[in-house]
Design brief:
Elements: E1 12-17, H1 35-43, H2 49-65, E2 69-71, H3 84-87, E3 88-91, E4 94-97, H4 112-115, E5 123-125, E6 138-141, E7 144-149, H5 165-174, E8 179-184, E9 203-206, E10 210-213, H6 221-231, E11 236-238, H7 241-245, E12 252-255, E13 258-262, H8 266-274, E14 278-282, H9 285-288, E15 298-303
Parallel strand pairs: 1-2, 4-5, 7-8, 10-11, 13-14
Antiparallel strand pairs: 1-15, 3-4, 6-7, 9-10, 12-13
The chain binds arginine.
Length: about 300
């Protein structure tokens, strides 16, 4: 397979879509690695496998409708494999295995059968365990690579901070011709409304020149201002804390003028349609309880 990814919105041809099959029992609070999951574990409202499987199948049906080749991970028993985005990423024609949170390391072997179809010279793995990065923090935007990170001193104890500056430096070495720009994000293990878990939880380009953004997700306001300058204020759709919590920035583009979005995102979906973007609505509120949505559960391999 010949990979090609230059941005988040060109016409999609092939993608990995995660799976909720054999997702395991409801984790304990200690086992969870994000605050929104913890909230639902405590409230007894943690999502169940059959509901999540149904939601993901709805996404698969939309992708098939647009003739996108869909790869699913092999099933690892009792393992949460929903968020395919984080375990690896594709930039240009390179496949990069993430140095992910140790709790999630075993997820990658389920897509080895996909990796086996790629030229081994194009497959990369960071050389040191001190280099951390996950796909949800990395957004490719033509000449730019945007990377979410966390520069707080408590990084080592912060399991919602998944990409460090060593990760940013590593991506820079792989793409010397790109402008790599990092963003220091706000993290909170206590309150999901204050937690920009990954960059794609508070920002994502959409359409040709637009983006969805949550200003308060940026720990360093200069990062937010940089994006305002680059995209232009009139091209940004600002979301509130509650909309970030519901994961509005985490929709998924099939093309510049086609997105998959959650059916309850009324304000966002209206804005998209007003900009002549076709919105394919799916139910994804159960998946959202684990602090991830459509971008998080998809990992594009080929776009035009
Ligand atoms: N790309 C993303 N934003 N992924 C969300 C992953 C959510 C998952 N609960 C985690 O904490 O790892």
């Amino acid at each position: 397979m010949k990979l090609n990814i230059q941005n988040e919105t060109s016409r999609l041809r092939a993608v990995v879509l995660g799976t909720a099959v054999s997702n395991g029992n409801t984790p304990t609070v200690e086992e969870a690695y994000d605050p929104k999951s913890i909230e639902h574990i405590k409230a007894g409202t943690y999502p169940i496998e059959s509901d999540m499987t149904e939601e993901m199948n709805a996404v698969a049906r939309v992708l098939e409708k647009y003739d996108v080749k869909v790869f699913r991970p092999e099933i690892i028993k009792n393992c949460n494999q929903i968020f395919a985005r984080d375990i690896s990423l594709v930039i240009e024609d390179k496949f990069i295995k993430s140095n992910i949170l140790p709790d999630r390391e075993k997820e990658i072997k389920a897509i080895q059968y996909v990796i086996d179809t790629i030229d081994p010279k194009k497959v990369f793995k960071a050389p040191s365990e001190e280099i951390h990065f996950e796909g949800g923090d990395i957004i490719i935007h033509n000449d730019y690579i945007f990377i979410g990170t966390y520069k707080g001193e408590d990084y080592p104890d912060c399991i919602v901070a998944r990409t460090n500056m060593k990760g940013v430096e590593y991506i820079k070495t792989l793409f010397p011709n790109k402008i790599v720009k990092e963003f220091d994000l706000n993290k909170s293990m206590e309150n999901p409304r204050d937690n920009a878990l990954h960059l794609d939880c508070c920002f994502q380009p959409v359409g040709k020149n637009k983006a969805i953004i949550h200003k308060e997700g940026f720990r360093d306001i200069k990062g937010y201002e940089f994006l305002v300058d680059l995209f232009g204020k009139e091209n940004l759709f600002h979301i509130t804390k509650d909309e970030m919590y519901d994961m509005n920035s985490n929709i998924f583009s099939i093309a510049e003028d086609i997105v998959i979005s959650e059916k309850n995102f009324i304000r966002l979906n209206t804005w998209l349609r007003n900009h002549k973007i076709t919105v394919e609505e799916v139910p994804y509120a159960e998946i959202a309880k684990q602090e991830g949505l459509l971008r998080c559960s998809t990992m594009p391999l080929i776009r035009d």
